[in-house]
Write a structure and sequence with these properties.
Largest sheet: 8 strands, antiparallel
Number of strands: 21
Number of helices: 4
Radius of gyration: 36 Å
Shape: elongated
Structural class: alpha+beta
Distance between the termini: 143 Å
Order of helices and strands: HEEEEEEEEEEEEEEEEEEEHEHHE
Strand content: 25-35%
Length: 330
Amino acid sequence: MIYNKTIKALALTALMALSSTHIQAQDLLARQAPVDRKATKVDTFALKSVIEREQANSAVAQLYTEWNNKYAHRATELPDSFRIDLRHFCMPTPSRVITSNFGRRWGRMHKGLDIKVYTGDTIRAAFDGKVRMAQYEANGYGNYVVIRHNNGLETIYGHMSKHLVRENQEVKAGTPIGLGGNTGRSTGSHLHFETRLCGVALDPALMFDFKAQDVTADFYTFRKKASHAGRTVAQRNNKTTQAKETTEQPEVAENEQASVKTSREATVRNNKQQRTREQRRPKQKNYTVKKGDTLYSIAKRSGMTVDQLCKMNGIKKNSSIKPGQVIKHS
């Protein structure tokens, strides 16, 4: 009898232990589920990041067939269309002041933006990439850095006082690459900033809004179109919470010389016309009013009408004049 009770007690204890283990196992699985979901989410983001990076590297490999430290830029064949990821950016400088825009200036193309910075200000890489050049050019960029980015762009930073990176160095967006300065062909401390695709200059303002300290969109889509007298035609889109794309007709390299020549010829014609107008325009003289002079007597002496004299001096016919007053006449 006692033996049977002992067996029953042991069996009941074992059953309760097994039930408790099953419940604990269920609790463990329930607690593990959110962890598994988070791990899956992290793995998905990591996989997506790897895929995007590989696609970017593949795109860059298709755009550029060589890597050299000899040329700041050399125009190569442009793709018909290319999408540039502008996310994960860093503004090269916190300065919001643009002192010179992209376009024709002094009879030649200014292929970047000039941003006001002071000597010693930190200049940073715009995107992740690799430094292709960090050199000095006395008659041009001065101390400059060229970075080839993972998104396909190449950016140039000119007139710096000092390099903070070396050639072939990997950089992240925001990495300090130099200090602001006034080296090379420069008339004041500023940053000359260029954005290029396959060596062809694109207007940085299509991608960077320095006044707002932001990019113009999440993506920028380059489309190659027929050049029109070397001018850049662009469609600008405002940034929204959704990814937008902008398109640009670039200035094609082979038309630059013809465009510059046309611009010079137009400048010469304008100068000639200006000189001709100046020669035809009556020369202006000054007359100091003397005691007894009247507008009529001054006009008669100058070979003008009173109306002409008043108009030239911005006065009325009934205005009084005083000795010592200067009157303009032709």
